[in-house]
Design goal:
The complex is a heterotrimer of chains A (about 280), B (about 300) and C (about 220). Chain A is α+β, with helices and mostly antiparallel strands. Chain A has a single domain, classed as Ribosomal Protein S5, domain 2. Chain A has 5 helices and 14 strands. In chain A, the strands form 4 sheets. In chain A, strands 1, 2, 3, 4, 5 and 6 form a 6-stranded mixed sheet that branches. A 4-stranded antiparallel sheet of chain A has the order 12-11-13-14, sandwiched between helices. A two-stranded antiparallel sheet of chain A has the order 7-10. In chain A, a hairpin with a 2-residue loop joins strand 11 and strand 12. The two termini of chain A are about 15 Å apart. With about 300 residues, chain B is an alpha+beta fold. Helices cover about 35% and strands about 25% of the residues of chain B. Chain B is built from 5 helices and 11 strands, in the order αββββββαβαββαββα. In chain B, the strands form 3 sheets. Chain B has a 5-stranded mixed sheet with strand order 3-4-5-7-6. In chain B, strands 9-8-10-11 form a 4-stranded antiparallel sheet, sandwiched between helices. In chain B, strands 1-2 form a two-stranded antiparallel sheet. In chain B, strand 3 and strand 4 form a beta hairpin. In chain B, helix 1 crosses helix 4 and helix 2 crosses helix 3. In chain B, about 45% of the residues are buried. Chain C has about 220 residues and is mainly β. Chain C has a 5-stranded mixed sheet with strand order 1-2-7-8-4, with no helix packed on it. The longest helix of chain C is centred in the C-terminal third of the chain and has 8 residues. Chain C is elongated and about 65 Å long. Classes of the chains: A alpha+beta (about 280), B alpha+beta (about 300), C mainly beta (about 220). Chains in contact: A-B, B-C. Chains B and C meet through strand 5 and helix 5 of B and loops of C. Strand 14 of chain A pairs antiparallel with strand 11 of chain B, so a sheet runs across the interface.
Chain lengths: ~280, ~300, ~220
């Protein structure tokens, strides 16, 4: 698995993930928006998936629309709970202004296991996202006065430690397979997708870790995909399997992202971009 | 909400009056306390694992090949199924049949906001999930290269609308004589902390989904085929740990199994009625044939004589 | 399963018997050594002529959607005539009348048997309602204009000709049949065809004949 963040300079955050034959590019854009009346203290996040015709000719025109819809729905559901992604951190002024994150996912190459790759890339992109510091003043007459600092590096980062990672388990025969390739996917008629939010300890530095509590992993979304059905026992086993896989994945991802951030801070980052 | 150009639209910054009532200003914690009055007693008087009374019937839509109407408490869902027809926009021959599912909310169905006429994201998700729930149940090899249309219309939504939709669609498919491997039933559950609300009302679902604390919360819907012991659809949204998911699964399986006799009774009743009508028609047809035969005999005799 | 005056009524998924006991008929399927019901209806056990075992099947009051399968005899109406192919709309499958459907694209039809071919045709330029009379296995003649036209005539069994006694008209109704064979080239002879009227619905034959005569593309 190859992951690189900050590949698109115009986006507030971006990441590119290469998982064998699957290639995903995620860009995060931030905008200031009015919060929903039902949730005045929360920001918004929206996912949009685009299956590019580069991936396979079937995605040309509206061919990839169904797949794109299902992946974006899945991501929206996985990030729905406040325990998965706390929208309160996107609030600027309660009831008046908030940040809205547009997460745009581009599938450049489809080689199996799209959902997992997408969730990892999204988490990395959100980890990389910089939100500018905003000074808000409420003027007379209800007008809002926003002041953004001029320094482009004066920004805050998102608390993304508990963002969910999706794990796809393909049922082939009697067993469930994690991280299926395209060939394995075509052999199975049903696959289970589990979104796991683990505790954020992998994404925090040593100091922060001492203060946070150690919670257990939770499912933020479960879905069955495909024209087949499963036995309840298979579902149970699959969820447990998914938990273990997600834990390992989260740990590895957290370490890598922290290391990259440290490298960035010294401006010593060696950019690979798209040439590799 | 996207604008509907066929209707006169209100000004864009209109909001529902309900947001200014006392109810909507309650905090999530207050709402949480309200849905459970005492230990194990819900706001509408049910126990935690008690479901609302269910009413099912078929032949609700006379023009459709098969149809069903399901009421789960005050949630009302109607479903119609049409004959197999050619798959539109299809270039290659497919060995299995397709299912085309569409779920639509009536604009007045939801208590909190008016639903738009254009299909929004939630309806599209539900349509895809309904297709997912029904595909393993239908014998798709019996109508290759054709598609069966299933339309579900949710007239009133007071919680568990998706479970009611799956029940209605399964029953409508049996009514339409589409070959199926088994009867499919569905039920849903809302989880708030350690409380598992079976067959939640809309209020309970809202509290379970929009919880901001640190506890287990969420809504799970599950559809199963009882005889073959298979889960056809399992959707969970929220944040729950594995033990609560497993516990919820066990309870939901039990409830889905409880629904099977209800559906079976309805099907048997309708089948017997259908057989009675068929017999009556056949008897009437035989009568007509007999009178025609008698007439032919009379004319033959006349021809031979004259 | 429920025992009623019509027999044992089953719902889809009802386990009927062991796979060894009976053979699966229409409306049932076999899974892991047992036979289950696929439709809602009355269970029927009939004797199988070829083998010794009985066939178990489900008889549903509502007919499931009928689709033509390979080997079926269908009745079709010709819509387009080209030099290489003739397009038609399938109206009935065997004895049952199909519901009106859009054009079916995926079946190749053949008239390569004696019983298959043209049943009703009208001559070019002849008025509607006047059917041609077959004069040989490959020619038909219009009684009004006396024009002869080539058609592949179907050889129809006598018990299906039942209208002759009821009307004065000479042209007799015959059946037009075609066997579905995926893969065979379609060669329906040019000419109008008419729907097959199942033997049970004799009383409607003459009126329907008028409505469907004609239709040469």
């Amino acid at each position: 698995m190859e992951l690189e963040t900050d590949v698109v300079s115009h986006a507030s955050g971006s990441a590119r993930l290469r998982l064998a034959n699957t290639d995903i590019l995620v860009g995060v854009k931030t905008e200031i928006d009015v919060p929903k009346p039902e949730n005045p203290a929360q920001g918004k996040i929206e996912f949009f998936v685009d299956c590019s015709a580069n991936a396979t000719p079937e995605f040309e025109g509206r061919g990839g629309e169904q797949l794109a819809n299902s992946i974006s729905n899945l991501m929206q559901r996985a990030y729905y709970s406040s325990q998965a992604f706390n929208l309160k951190q996107l609030c600027i002024l309660e009831g008046k202004q908030c940040w809205k994150l547009y997460v745009d996912i581009l599938i450049l190459e489809s080689g199996g296991n799209l959902c997992d790759a997408v969730s990892v890339a999204v988490k990395a992109a959100l980890f990389n996202t910089r939100i500018p510091f905003v000074k808000v003043a409420l003027m007379d007459g209800g007008n809002i006065d926003l002041q953004l600092s001029d320094d482009p590096y004066d920004c805050k980062l998102l608390d993304i430690g508990s963002a969910p990672l999706l794990v796809t388990l393909c049922k082939i025969g009697d067993k469930c397979v994690v991280d299926p390739t395209a060939e394995e996917e075509s052999c199975s008629i049903v696959s289970l997708i589990v979104g796991i939010t683990d505790n954020p300890k992998f994404y925090q530095t040593e100091k922060e870790n001492e203060q946070s509590f150690d919670g257990s992993a939770k499912c933020s979304t479960i879905d069955i995909n495909g024209p087949g059905s499963v036995h309840p026992k298979t579902l149970n086993n699959a969820i447990n399997q998914g938990m273990e896989a997600a834990k390992a994945l989260d740990e590895a991802l957290g370490r890598t992202l922290l290391r990259e951030r440290k490298e960035n801070q010294g401006f010593k980052k060696q950019s690979y971009g798209f040439l590799k | 909400m996207p604008l509907d150009y066929k209707r006169f639209n209100p000004p864009e910054d209109c909001v529902s009056y309900k947001r200014f009532t006392k109810d909507s200003l309650k905090s999530p914690e207050q709402l949480e306390n309200e849905i459970l009055i005492k230990e194990e007693l819900r706001k509408d008087g049910r126990a935690l694992s008690e479901t609302r009374p269910i009413f099912v019937s078929t032949e609700a839509v006379s023009q459709a090949k098969g149809s069903a109407y399901v009421e789960l408490g005050s949630t009302k869902v109607i479903c119609s199924v049409y004959d197999p027809r050619e798959i539109p926009h299809q270039n290659e021959f497919s060995q299995l049949g397709h299912l085309f599912c569409e779920v639509k909310f009536a604009p007045f169905s939801c208590p909190r906001q008016r639903r738009s006429h254009a299909p929004d994201a939630e309806e599209r998700t539900l349509s895809a999930a309904l297709k997912q729930a029904l595909e393993p149940v239908v014998c798709r090899n019996m109508f290759p290269n054709y598609q069966v249309d299933i339309f579900v219309y949710i007239i009133e939504n007071n919680g568990s609308c998706f479970a009611a939709a799956i029940n209605a669609a399964g029953l409508a498919l049996v009514d339409a004589a589409v070959p199926m491997y088994d009867i499919v039933t569905a039920s849903s559950m809302a989880v708030v902390g350690d409380n598992y609300f079976l067959d939640p009302t809309e209020e309970e679902e809202f509290v379970a989904l929009n919880n901001t604390g640190d506890i287990n919360h969420g809504v799970i819907t599950m559809a199963t085929m009882d005889v073959l012991q298979q889960i056809t659809n399992f959707t969970q949204i929220g944040s729950m740990d594995v033990t609560s998911v497993n516990l919820a699964m066990v309870k939901l399986e039990q409830e889905c199994a409880n629904l099977v006799p209800v559906i079976q009774q309805c099907i048997v009743k309708k089948t017997v009625e259908g057989l009675k009508i068929k017999k009556k028609l056949e008897d009437a047809a035989k009568e007509r044939e007999k009178t025609l035969d008698d007439k032919i005999d009379i004319w033959k005799k006349k021809l031979q004589a004259g | 399963m429920a025992k009623t005056e019509f027999g044992t009524v089953c719902v889809p998924g009802t386990r009927l018997c062991l796979a060894k006991e009976h053979k699966c008929g229409p409306g049932t399927y076999e899974y892991r050594g047992y036979v289950y019901a696929m439709l809602a209806g009355v269970m029927k056990i009939e004797d199988d002529e070829i083998q010794e075992r009985k066939i178990i099947s489900i008889d549903s009051p509502r007919t499931p959607g009928i689709l033509p399968k390979t080997g079926d005899i269908v009745t079709a109406k010709v819509t387009v005539v080209n030099s290489r192919v003739v397009q038609c709309v399938i109206l009935c499958v065997g004895p049952s009348v199909l519901l009106p459907m859009m054009e079916v694209h995926w079946y190749h039809l053949s008239t390569a048997e004696n019983e298959l071919g043209v049943v009703i045709a009208t001559a070019e330029g002849a008025p509607q309602g006047v059917n041609m009379v077959p004069i040989s296995w490959s020619e038909m003649q219009c009684p009004k204009s006396l024009v002869k036209e080539p058609r592949k005539v179907a050889r129809v069994l006598p018990e299906n000709i039942n209208d002759a006694m009821l009307t004065d008209e000479k042209p007799e109704l015959k059946e037009e049949n075609a066997v579905c064979n995926n893969g065979d080239a379609a060669r329906l002879s040019t000419g109008a065809t008419s729907p097959l009227f199942p033997p049970q619905r004799r009383e409607f034959l003459t009126s329907r004949a008028g409505a469907f005569a004609g239709g040469v593309a």
